[in-house]
Design a protein that fits this description.
It is a single chain. By secondary structure, the protein is an alpha/beta fold. The protein has one domain: Amidase signature (AS) domain (Amidase signature (AS) enzymes). The protein is 35% helix and 15% strand. The strands form three sheets. An eleven-stranded mixed β-sheet has the order 1-3-2-8-10-9-14-15-13-11-12, sandwiched between helices. Strands 4-5 form a two-stranded antiparallel ribbon. A two-stranded antiparallel sheet has the order 6-7. A hairpin with a 5-residue loop joins strand 14 and strand 15. It is globular, with a radius of gyration of 21 Å. The C terminus is likely disordered.
């Protein structure tokens, strides 16, 4: 018997073409499982069965007359709740944002529609995506399918959880300090933060040049396929590339033989890493050697760029919350409000210095580093998924007495590459001592998203990841 959730986007497209499966049946199955999972996983904000099935029927009609919009017409996609879908509200994980439906599609939503993808719903996120965890004042906890007492990560929380469960094949996320890579790593799936500007955005994020949009999926080939769909130009984003979107699936099977790869277990500044994570990533580096790459253990020549990211982030939070009243702020996540207060007190000159000068120094240093190395490997996160509801790992977690006062103290590996705007992907590379997924981060030079995807696919093919199913989730 065919299990629809186990068929990847390529297999679904082929079945639609042969007329052995209908997009309506696939969408119905996905909606059934999305609704059934809400009580435990809670990955969705909006599920609109009637509209979704209407889009699926339109796709079915296109396939029946031999006129699909593309090879993935009829494949299901979820959209993070900070991206506009005409006719649905965009709540951004907040209980105080306007509840009225928006009247336009974001560029990424429009590109999905143009490809014939069937939108399954909008997915959960922490308030305004401010933290790499899966709790918000609007929706409460989104749980990790691998262990219901652990976070799904954030801020693309519901998208990564849905990907792990096979609810839809494509998932849209955004990443300002790691918000694609963190939940993908914690939920045992793959994703990429593309080079800045590759995927257009509208409205423009208040986090400015830190904010990237990109795909999450179970398999790297699906990540590549969705990135191709999302990367079409859009005049509403003045910072987006105007070049046509390439087919990122081309070349993903070319392997890594002959590439020069740097392996950095701590990036030179991460002080706390779970030994199980460090071991899994070291083994992953050896896999690349076995695949024919030259791998050197070496740190990139930069100090921790997180302070640069935080200055930009806090200023963006101040702008995001500027229109909300004190009464509304009292209903918001206190951590987000604190970020906004810090940002509001920041001199404009400090923000410009972070954007123009301090960031440029890191960009130049990393560009020089990539003249020697094609790719950089590191952990995605220093631990497996942390306990649900905590802002930091508790004392003693993963063998550490304490993890620091800020959530970024337990998240050192992802923010640097928002600062530099480089493509950075994550792919599962093993399990920690609790049986939870460990992510391998693969970073490439700016505009070499294809090379990152190629390495991700090579590793995935050599070390197929473990999978979790709804029936396998444990508490």
């Amino acid at each position: 018997m065919t299990v629809l959730s186990e068929l990847d986007a390529f297999a679904l497209g082929a079945a639609f073409r042969r007329r052995t499966l209908s997009p309506v049946d696939v969408a119905t199955d996905a909606l059934d499982r999305a609704e059934a999972s809400q009580a435990t996983i809670n990955a969705f904000v909006t599920i609109d069965r009637e509209r979704t099935l209407g889009w699926a029927r339109e796709s079915e009609a296109r396939w029946m007359r031999g006129d699909p919009l593309g090879p993935f017409d009829g494949v299901g996609v979820t959209i993070k709740d900070n991206m506009a879908v005409a006719g649905w509200p965009s709540l951004k994980g907040s209980a105080v944002t306007p509840k009225e439906p928006v009247t336009f599609d974001a560029p990424v939503t429009a590109r999905c529609r143009e490809a014939g993808l069937v939108i399954l719903g909008t997915t959960t996120m922490p308030e305004f995506g401010w933290i790499g965890l899966s709790t918000s004042p609007l929706t409460g906890h989104t749980r990790n399918p691998w262990n219901l007492e652990r976070t799904a990560g954030g801020s693309t929380s519901g998208g990564a959880a849905a990907a792990a469960l096979g609810i839809g094949r494509f998932h849209l996320g955004s990443d300002g300090l790691g918000s694609i890579r963190i939940p993908a790593a914690y939920c045992g799936v793959s994703g990429i933060k593309p080079s800045f500007g590759r995927v257009p955005a509208y409205p423009i994020s208040v986090m400015g040049e830190l904010a990237h949009l990109g795909p999450i999926a179970r398999d790297v080939r699906e990540v590549a396929a969705l990135l191709s769909i999302l990367s079409g130009p859009d005049a509403r984003d003045p910072m987006a590339w105007n070049t046509p979107a390439p087919d990122y699936t081309i070349g993903t099977a070319d392997g890594v033989r002959g590439l020069r790869i740097a392996y950095s277990p701590r990036l030179g500044f991460a002080t706390k890493v779970d030994p199980a994570v460090e071991k899994a990533v070291a083994e992953a580096a050896r896999v690349f050697e076995n695949l024919g790459a030259t791998v050197d253990q070496v740190d990139p020549p930069v100090e921790d760029p997180a302070p640069i990211a935080w200055d930009i982030w806090n200023a963006g939070a101040a702008l995001a919350l500027a229109a909300f009243t004190p009464v509304q702020r009292a209903q918001m996540d206190p951590g987000l409000v604190a970020c906004a207060q810090t940002g509001a007190a920041m001199p404009a000159t400090a923000l410009i210095e972070a954007l123009l000068y301090r960031r440029t120094q890191v960009v130049v240093a990393m560009a020089a580093f990539h003249e020697r190395y094609d790719l950089l490997l590191s952990p995605t996160m220093p631990t497996g998924a942390i306990p649900l509801g905590a802002d930091l790992p508790p004392p003693g977690f993963a063998g550490q007495d304490a993890w620091g006062p800020l959530w970024t103290d337990w998240c050192p590996f992802t923010p640097p590459f928002n600062v530099t705007q480089q493509p950075a992907g994550t792919v599962p590379c093993g399990l920690d001592a609790d049986g939870l997924p460990v992510g391998l981060q693969i970073v490439g030079p700016k505009r070499r998203d294809d090379l990152v995807l190629r390495a991700m696919r090579a590793f995935e093919a050599a070390r197929p990841p473990a999978r979790v199913h709804m029936s396998h989730s444990r508490s």
